[in-house]
């Protein structure tokens, strides 16, 4: 290594690189042994869930097993790359550019270092490569640019995407077969084959079909429009005649439906109108009952407080005419304000 590289820290520092690679290899082996034990326990737990009929929990836990298996496979490849680079550190020190035969191993280590939090020594190796080859080389490997040679398997195993339904189902079948669990996978297959649209947009296709089938029935009629310009059915023409309005106009004969599916759609629409009318009628009844209760409460309060007002008016020496006007006031808070001010005025006169 030249003196200029030592001054400006542009060398690879072979001894430090070898130390970090050795620590990374040892840590990878230790983590693989630990992860093997964890995977065995997790597979045993999933077999118990399948045997107990708790398939929903098993479907969730199996994703974690797939993730751990992918990390285990990525660590195994990284271990080989670390050993490969460790044996060729002198070649990296002697050449200014990264050799072609080592480009895949170096780029894969640079890509995996920030994504493997259990291997902090790889970050030190990455920093050494950055000092040797520059930030542009590191950015190209980290961003998977076309001119880099990052191992495709490492990219796939370290990705954060969710595993497919087929992979999860195959692993569940494998675990059930391994632990001799009699498990019927038909329910799980049906659940995994459902698309998100089928779970979220359940009744919408039925409503759309009903609206499309009822369009020919309104030809030749004048639709009733709401104040905002949207057409609405005649059964909602007036608020007071919701339940009495017929589902079909009396002056128009009902058309005969040759198609049974169209007739079923009309019956669905009629039932919907009836249910809407019942809901509106109940809402109006509840509103009127609340208004009657509020009026009764106000009258009861006035009956209780009115004698108090009369006594206070008499004690304040207010004339009968003013008293009659005062008692006809509807606001109790306004009455109390007037009495308070009148009492203060009388008290002020007595003091003077």
Automatic annotation (TrEMBL):
Cleavable signal peptide: none
Gene3D superfamilies to which the protein is assigned, alphabetical: Vacuolar protein sorting-associated protein Ist1 (1.20.1260.60)
Protein name stated in the entry: IST1 homolog
Similarity comment: Belongs to the IST1 family.
Region of interest called Disordered, as start-end residue ranges on this chain: 183-247
One GO term (biological process): protein transport
Annotated Pfam families: Ist1 (PF03398)
Ranges of Polar residues composition bias in the record: 215-243
């Amino acid at each position: 290594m030249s003196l200029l590289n030592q001054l400006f820290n542009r060398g690879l520092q072979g001894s430090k690189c070898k130390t970090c690679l050795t620590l990374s290899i040892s840590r990878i082996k230790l983590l693989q042994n630990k992860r093997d034990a964890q995977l065995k326990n997790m597979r045993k737990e999933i077999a118990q869930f399948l045997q107990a009929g708790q398939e929903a929990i098993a479907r969730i836990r199996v994703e974690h097993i797939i993730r751990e298996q992918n990390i285990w496979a990525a660590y195994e490849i990284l271990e080989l790359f670390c050993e490969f680079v460790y044996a060729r550190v002198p070649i990296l020190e002697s050449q200014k550019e990264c050799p072609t035969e080592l480009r895949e191993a170096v780029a894969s280590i640079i890509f995996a270092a920030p994504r493997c939090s259990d291997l902090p020594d790889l970050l030190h190796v990455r920093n050494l490569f950055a000092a040797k080859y520059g930030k542009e080389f590191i950015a190209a490997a980290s961003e998977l640019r076309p001119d880099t040679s990052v191992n495709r398997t490492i990219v796939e195993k370290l990705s954060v995407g969710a595993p497919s339904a087929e992979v999860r189902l195959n692993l569940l079948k494998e675990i059930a077969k391994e632990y001799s669990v009699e498990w019927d996978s038909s329910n799980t297959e049906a659940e995994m084959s459902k698309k998100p649209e089928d779970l979220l947009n359940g009744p919408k296709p039925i409503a759309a079909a009903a609206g499309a089938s009822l369009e020919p029935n309104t030809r030749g009629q004048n639709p009733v429009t709401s104040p905002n310009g949207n057409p609405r059915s005649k059964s909602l023409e007036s608020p007071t005649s919701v339940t009495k309005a017929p589902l079909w106009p009396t002056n128009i004969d009902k058309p005969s439906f040759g198609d049974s599916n169209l007739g079923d759609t009309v019956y669905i629409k009629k039932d919907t109108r009836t249910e809407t009318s019942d809901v509106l009628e109940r809402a109006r009844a509840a509103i009127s009952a609340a208004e009657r209760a509020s009026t009764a409460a106000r009258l009861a309060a006035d009956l209780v407080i009115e004698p108090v007002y009369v006594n206070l008016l008499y004690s304040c020496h207010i004339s009968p005419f003013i008293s009659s006007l005062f008692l006809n006031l509807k606001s109790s808070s306004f009455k109390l304000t007037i009495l308070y001010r009148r009492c203060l005025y009388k008290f002020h006169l007595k003091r003077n």
